[in-house]
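Residues determine shape. Take a concrete instance:
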Amino acid sequence: MTEDTAPQTDKPKTDKMNSPQTCTALYALFALSMALPVMFSSLPVMVLGFLVLTAAIIAAYAQRDAARGTVYESHIRWLIRTFWIGGGIYLPIVTIIGSIYLATHIDTQALIEAAQNGTEATPANVANIIAQHYGKMIVNTTRITGGIFTLWWVVRCLSGYLVLRRNKAIANPGSWI
């Protein structure tokens, strides 16, 4: 066999997909989907973050077959697991923890007074009373629990990206951290 026709087993296969660029773009989209809502806490930016994440996860699944057998397969798996672990496990956990904290620290006296004054107990009225009296606590609790989740998400994206920059596979793409 000549040097041109010899199998190249020590080099990653890149003919199946535009691997480094695709994975870099996916890491950027995943990180951006969480960083944007944290940096700019507004509903339109949160919706934009959700749309970016939706596009990123669809693209990751679309690239999964093309990445098979390459070092990039582990990166695609890492990103897909980031989505499912984060959205399906960690986000609900921090939401429950935050909700429990709020439920145990909100004094119901304002609600009782409103009821005694004849305020109808509609969901909107109750939400307004809670927001007036406990708005800062709700915002701070959301920032703390959401910040922990976002930190995990961004660190996971950054650590995967740094491995990608060395053109290496993720050592354990099935890990949680």
Summary: The chain has one domain: 19-165. Residues 1-15 have pLDDT under 50 and may be disordered.
